[in-house]
Amino acid sequence: MTSTDDDISSYESLPFGALLQQLRGHLSLREIHRQTRISNLYLSRVEKGEQQPGLNVLRRLAAFYNVDLQFLVRRAGLLDNGEAQPPVDEEAEVERAYRFVLADPVFRFGTRPRGPLTTESKRFIVEMYERFSGKRLLG
Question: Whole-model pTM above 0.85?
Fold first, then answer.
């Protein structure tokens, strides 16, 4: 599922769990688990407001739902509107975005990279993907 900024603004008034349910749409919790490796029981508890998600979970959900990580962090209550943004591990953020690109079923053209790539190479691939797809993966 992909969401635009206009779509996201309509979710501002929803509680965080309901926001996640809206983003999930018709997908089952098991499907989310298969795609993100987040336990469906854990995600269910987050959606019910029984569990507070961590930053790593929010990163995976932001990538999967194609929404801004800072938006989810703020909505989850990990960041107040007036606070500075939490520190972002740039290498981890590039790695997350790179893995998202490789997992995209539309991204099936060309030769896949073999062997280790530098962070700069991964960033380049992600930036080309962003230009091609119109999705924003890096902050």
Answer: no
